[in-house]
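Run folding on both entries below.
>entry_1
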Amino acid sequence: MYVYTLGQWLLFFFLYCFLGWVWESCYVSARQRRWVNRGFLHGPLLPIYGFGAVIILWATLPVRGSLALIFLLGMLAATALEYVVGAAMEKIFKVRYWDYRSQPFQLNGYSVRSSSIAWGFLTILMTDVIHEPIARTVLAVPPVILLICDFVISVLFTADAYESIKAALALGHTLEAMTKLKADIEELQ
């Protein structure tokens, strides 16, 4: 069993936020044949991947010997996170950041069976291939350097999150006002 310090977990979070942003931006860009900067934040971090990776690692590191349990626990953890974050973001910001409603076997448009299965396989890839070199690298970082990195990235992340949340809330309010205005115009007609 791996035991990581809080600082190491924080650096894992930021590294997986960045890797998730790279993965999703490249994937969506390739599908749309133009560059798409994915994510809620302005910078190159997608927090859902950081939270997902940390949650998946917490869930699966104790069962490292069982591929089936790694798949199942990773699939369940990532699907639950995707659902909760999707629903919460829509509720808070009045915008649906992803929508699976047109696909079969989806749950309220926030999660879908095909993605859940993919999360299970990605969990195996992450725990068996990706995480080992990342863990070795993070474990080799001297504690003082780790603290400095965590502090600097945390400050930048917090500033970006603050500005992004402020902009998203403003957009949500604008969309609400436009919807109300549209309804008022239709009523007048």
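>entry_2
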Amino acid sequence: LAVLVVVALGGLLAVQTGFVYRMEIARALPGLRPLLSEACARSSCTVPYPRDAERIAIEASDLQAEPGHPGHYLLQATLNNRADYPQQWPHLELTLTDAGDNPLSRRVLPPSDWLPATQSPEAFAARNAVELRIPFSAPGVAPTGYRIYAFYP
């Protein structure tokens, strides 16, 4: 009876460990993600993708005013996932600044606002770069500069 209890408790511990560390297991062993996702679907949980902002880089960016449309701008940027594993899409923070680099306007852009239609909304693929074109308006603001960075809330 004691052996049966130890085996049952050991199995329960293995299941709990798999549940708690499901994201880390899926990152380290990507082939197990479908199996973990299927098991989680039965238990009403999900297998989230990692959120490592240090591995997300904005390689290049450019902000241009749209000719003939005052207060309308186009932000172009290249977002790069430098990680060896897929990650969750980050949020972007865009800050428009004046000549003294003082903030004039700040906006947080969730992935749903800028993710290109050609990209999978599920995850940002490993070692992948994405070209972004984000049109927006900022009436009454005359920025001379901007700052943009990627983060996870």
